[in-house]
User: Fold this.
Amino acid sequence: MAQSTLTRSAKAILAEPVFVHVALVRPDGTPHVTPVWVDVEGDNVVINTAIGRSKARNIHKDSTVALSTFGPKNPYEAIAFQGKVIEVTEDGADAHIDFLAKKYLGLDTYPNRQPGERRVKIVIKPTKVWMQPHDN
Assistant:
């Protein structure tokens, strides 16, 4: 049964350095799926990208997204959810990508910054959440 918020177990999995596949809709209506680093802030999921990349462009056209991942120790422990982008901001985005670099790479700063790159945080509010095995 789907829920409208992340459970404690789902948040615990997303706190691990798991890759999440995010599905977006391109302006021509075709899907775009890409793996991303992820963070949780309260009941929202946060990803990070650079202005000009397809994720940032596609979200401005359609704020509906779907995401999925599985537990780091058990691939049958899965989370899938749909949501709406509720914020795209440059505020705190550089610090956020550094936080993610620490979580995923063990580095204090994100090593792949490009000259002139502008980062954005994308905040997603889950609207339907499925977890396998079922979790309340």
